[in-house]
Amino acid sequence: QKISRIIKYIHSHYSIQLRLKEVAALFELSPSYVSRMFKQATGFSFIEYVNAVRIKEAQRLLRETEKKVIEIASEVGFENIAHFGRVYKQVTKQSPLQYRKSLMNERKALMH
Predict the structure, then answer these.
(1) Mind listing the pLDDT tens digit for each residue in 69-80?
(2) How wide is the angle at C-alpha 54 spanned by C-alphas 48 and 59, nearest 5°?
(3) How far is residue 15's CA from residue 99's CA, in Å, rounded to a whole number?
């Protein structure tokens, strides 16, 4: 139950810096307990889950807006564009620009 509250917190605060230690303290739990229970409940480590939420939102923004990748990276909680690019590629197996380009190609194909 506490883990589901932490998950809700992550979903509504992904754009700010989220550290396991600080989030655990916010919910009056130990970081090791949160880490262990989080992995058990979600199959992801705390940071993997946070990154997955951020990347999912970044994909939505790439799909639905004309914002630059650097703006999107900042908006979803990455302070460093290079780190955003690495995490994005690790999660999706392509770069943000490759993703946007593939969407444009799909749209072109649908129009013909």
Answers:
(1) 999 999 999 999
(2) 120
(3) 21
**Could you give the CA distance from residue 23 to residue 61 in angstroms, rounded to a whole number?**
26
Consecutive H or E run containing 28? none
Q: Measure the CA–CA gap between 31 and 101, rounded to whole angstroms.
A: 40
pTM for this entry? 0.91
- Which amino acid is present at 62? L
Tell me: the pLDDT tens digits for 12-53? 999 999 999 999 999 999 999 999 999 999 999 999 999 999
Q: What is the distance, to the nearest Å, from the Cα of residue 63 to the centroid of all Cα atoms in its chain?
A: 15
| Euclidean distance between CA atoms 83 and 80, whole angstroms | 5
Structure confidence at residue 37 (pLDDT): 94
Residue 10, amino acid? I
Type of residue numbered 68:
K
The CA-atom distances, in angstroms, between 78 and each of 16, 29, 36, 47, 73 are: 8, 25, 25, 12, 5
Structure tokens at 75: 């908006």
